[in-house]
Design brief:
Layout (H helix, E strand, L loop, with lengths): L2 H13 L4 H31 L7 E9 L15 E6 L2 E6 L2 E7 L3 E6 L2 E6 L2 E8 L7 H13 L7
Antiparallel strand pairs: 1-2, 1-7, 2-3, 3-4, 5-6, 6-7
Helix pairs in contact: 1-2
C-alpha cells in the first residue's frame, strides 16, 4: 500500500467517525512515508539532471524493463527505477541514481523486435528493453532516434 493510500484511508476513517486517536498515528506514519518517498524521488531526479553535459537537453524519458533472455513477462511490477533517457546528445540508461551506460547518437543503433527495443552500440547488442508506454511499442523512440542521428546529435561525448 502506498503512502498516499494510507493518508486517504485515514481521511476516510475520520469521515466514518472512527476515533481520532486511532486515525492520527496512521495518518502521521502515512504522511512521513509520503514525504520520504517524494524526497527519494527528487534526489534521484536531481542526480540524473546533474549528469547532463553542458548544452545537453533532456527530450524524453521512458520507464523501461530490461529483458535479459526469453519472452518478457505478461505483467511488470508497478514501480520501476529503470529509465531510458533520450537527450540531444544520445541515450542514457539509469537504474535509480546509477547511470548504467550512455551512448552518443552517432554510435548507437536502435531496432524493434516486436514490442522490445534493441539497443546496439558499435555493432554489439547492449540491451533489450521493454518500454512502459501506452502501446508498449518503441515506434516513437525509433523515429526520434533516426531524426537525431541524421541531425548529427552527439554533442561533446566521444
Amino acid at each position: 500500500m502506498s503512502a498516499t493510500a494510507v493518508v486517504v484511508l485515514a481521511v476516510d476513517a475520520l469521515r466514518a467517525r472512527v476515533a481520532w486517536w486511532i486515525v492520527l498515528p496512521l495518518a502521521v506514519v502515512g504522511g512521513g512515508l509520503l514525504v520520504w518517498q517524494c524526497f527519494r524521488e527528487g534526489r534521484v531526479q536531481g542526480v540524473r539532471e546533474e549528469a547532463l553535459e553542458s548544452g545537453e537537453i533532456l527530450m524524453s524519458a521512458y520507464r523501461v524493463h530490461p529483458v535479459n533472455s526469453g519472452p518478457p513477462p505478461v505483467r511488470w511490477p508497478e514501480s520501476s527505477s529503470h529509465e531510458l533517457r533520450v537527450t540531444t546528445y544520445g541515450l542514457q540508461r539509469w537504474d535509480g541514481d546509477q547511470r548504467l551506460w550512455a551512448h552518443p547518437w552517432r554510435a548507437v543503433a536502435l531496432a524493434a523486435e516486436g514490442k522490445l527495443l534493441v539497443v546496439r552500440h558499435e555493432g554489439r547488442v547492449v540491451e533489450r528493453l521493454q518500454l512502459d508506454t501506452m502501446g508498449g511499442a518503441p515506434d516513437e523512440l525509433l523515429l526520434a532516434a533516426e531524426r537525431l542521428r541524421r541531425r548529427g546529435g552527439g554533442g561533446g561525448r566521444a
